Amino acid sequence: MQRSNSRLGWLAFGALAFLIGLYLVFLIQRAGHSLLALGALGVLGVTTWVFTSERAYAWRYLYPGVAAVLVFVLFPALYTVGIGFTNYSSTNLLSYERATAYFLDQKYAGSGEPLNLSLYPADKRFIVHVENEAGQGWQTAPLALDDAGARTVALQPAARPPAGDKAPMKDVIAHQAALKTLALILPGSKDEYRLSGLSKVAAMAPLFARNADGSLTNRQDGSVLKPDFNTGFYTSAGGERIAPGFKVGIGLGNFERLFTSHEFQGPLIKIFVWTVLFAFLTVVFTFVVGFVLASLLNWEGLRFRGVYRILLFLPYAVPGFISILIFRGLFNENFGEINLVLNGLFGIKPSWFSDPLLAKTMLLLVNTWLGYPYTMLLCMGMIKAIPADLYEVSAINGGGMWTNLTRITLPLIMKPMMPLLIASFAFNFNNFVLISLLTGGLPDFTDSMVPAGATDILVSYTYRIAFQDSGQNFGLAAAISTVIFALVAVLSVVNLKLTRVNASAR
């Protein structure tokens, strides 16, 4: 009996989750994202089949992980790649249908004369009364002015204003938002009267009419706008682009622009070289510092080794963004402690943030400080795992410290360390947090027309193009992200192959 109740409880929970999923699909569809709604419906259907079918029982353990990879890894990656083949930007945000709807929703003042508007209370509702200068009036039935959305209301002739006192101006002002949503229609007229002032309405007619070929005719001046699917804009007869633009596919346009345009080619090559150099030098410096410290801490004759280990591990225990912000203050050119010390000792105050070479040096110093504890811990463990017999044999054969280092320690730890060093290289290849918090990519290149700086790496350069440039070119940023993804994927493949080689060698 208890088992049956438990099964019924799970069935009820599953049915509730399925209904909630259907409702979410409905909301996505109503928002106008048909493809996304279709994909969500497919995921919901597969989920229901996996957890209800006996044939898919084994998949119940694998499905959550597989679904998470598809939804949170594969879908964003494919979506980003897809954006890279479009002109998606701050000037081309809308779809073609929504951009067309924007033009068709525009109104202009029609030929009718403006009418005076008044409100008359009627049992917590209001009668909207309008009249012309001659005193001819029209009014609505009692309405609830509660911002219920756009409404079209027919007016009825009124020989005299409604009974009772007219609402004061403060009430009219208080209901401005709701009054703006009303479209008032006079008897025998097709024009919509809309609010044009605090207490006036005027006839409004659609500004554009859509033609059979997709062009739009301006009813006010007769001009014609034609959609240009190459640029993603409606254009006038003179070729002027009329905002807002719409998103269209441009094929390899972003990638061609990225690799062939002088506007991007110059800074991109510099930034790519610096990105590789930054990641490589960071790995080298952190490994050297970490290995040296690990070797010292493994020296049996060193006193207070435990204290030294704790102190040297502290940079890894403090959250990285806090350390970066502290270093930003320490390197301040006017008030930072580092420049105060250098000025007191040598009479110099380096321009850490304005000189490109010094800014890059500062980044490498800070990143080495943040990264060496991790390498130190790895090297300590690997050195501990080396059999002591090897060093004893080396001592018997007259081997010294250099021989032990180059013939025993380094060769034995480099094989297991290599995949980890490659992973560290891939991480620093996309180390956005350090660049963003410490330098922001500055100082900027003086010969670049796009936002690019001497300390920018590819990922921060992408961010600046996507979110800080005046054009906010998301399509171009997605193309750069695709290139970065391909480079990191290659590094991952190399990492996996090295891992397999090491595993087979053991």
Automatic annotation (TrEMBL):
Quaternary state and interactors: The complex is composed of two ATP-binding proteins (MalK), two transmembrane proteins (MalG and MalF) and a solute-binding protein (MalE).
Source organism: Jeongeupia chitinilytica
Keywords: Cell inner membrane, Cell membrane, Membrane, Sugar transport, Transmembrane, Transmembrane helix, Transport
Domain ABC transmembrane type-1: 272-495
Signal peptide coordinates: none
Membrane topology: Multi-pass membrane protein
Primary residence: membrane
Record's protein name: Maltose/maltodextrin transport system permease protein
Compartments, as annotated in UniProt: Cell inner membrane; Cell membrane
Annotated InterPro entries: MalF_N, MalF_P2, MalF_P2_sf, MetI-like, MetI-like_sf
Membrane-traversing stretches: 7-28, 34-52, 61-85, 271-298, 310-331, 351-372, 420-442, 474-496
Family note: Belongs to the binding-protein-dependent transport system permease family. MalFG subfamily.
Classification via CDD domains: TM_PBP2
UniProt function note: Part of the ABC transporter complex MalEFGK involved in maltose/maltodextrin import. Probably responsible for the translocation of the substrate across the membrane.
This protein's record includes keyword Transport: yes
